[in-house]
Write a structure and sequence with these properties.
By secondary structure, the chain is mainly alpha-helical. It has one domain: CDP-alcohol phosphotransferase transmembrane (TM) domain (Four Helix Bundle (Hemerythrin (Met), subunit A)). The chain has 7 helices and no strands. Helix 1 packs antiparallel against helix 2 and helix 1 packs parallel to helix 3. It is globular.
Length: about 200
């Protein structure tokens, strides 16, 4: 197994580690550790692609596992945040549904011998989702440790900018997620007609 694939596998292994730190309430400041692990795992996404291109070691395994690892990481984060009441189930549903839909489109394309590469909107979407997850985790951690429940400061949005930032990040991520999904289908509408 080449280095790029090992980095991809490491990202998959980091997913349950991230979930343990985020969900197990006995770990001191677990949310902050979870945010750091998530950032590290997300960073490996660019790293494994760079290494594969640099070493000219792009494999079928890597092409399959790389997007799967990304979806596992984001889905795990969204489901965990829903479980912690830090994210609306509808937001998680929209984002995960979009990922399934685009994956289905790629499978149809592969059946027609066409490779759908990630476009700039898909890359913007990925960055926005990463920022959203990190800001929501940090926001939740700050509320738990800096402004504990019952503290009047946490209810004043103006004096608590972390909430404003996380809401903005969430809004941007949802908009880019939906737009990039629609754009993939619009860009490949001829392919959908051919597959009927």
């Amino acid at each position: 197994m080449n280095l790029a694939n090992k980095i991809t596998i490491a990202r998959v292994i980091l997913v349950p580690v991230f979930m343990v730190f985020l969900l197990v309430r006995l770990i001191p400041y677990g949310e902050f550790w979870a945010a750091a692990i998530f950032i590290l795992a997300a960073a490996t996404d660019s790293l494994d692609g760079y290494v594969a291109r640099k070493q000219k070691s792009i494999t079928k395994f890597g092409k399959f596992m790389d997007p799967l690892a990304d979806k596992l990481l984001i889905s795990a984060a969204l489901i965990s945040l829903v479980a912690l009441d830090a994210l609306s189930p509808w937001v998680a549903f929209l984002i995960i549904s979009r990922e399934f839909a685009v994956t289905g489109l790629r499978l149809v394309a592969a059946g027609e011998g066409v490779v759908i590469i990630a476009n700039k909107w898909g890359k913007f979407k990925t960055v926005a989702q990463i920022v959203m997850v990190v800001t929501l985790i940090v926001d939740m951690a700050l509320k738990a440790h800096i402004y504990p429940p019952g503290d009047w400061l946490r209810h004043l949005l103006v004096l608590y900018p972390a909430s404003t930032i996380s809401y903005l990040a969430l809004l941007i991520a949802v908009i880019l997620t939906l737009f990039s999904g629609f754009y993939y289908f619009y860009e490949n509408k001829n392919l959908i007609r051919l597959s009927k």
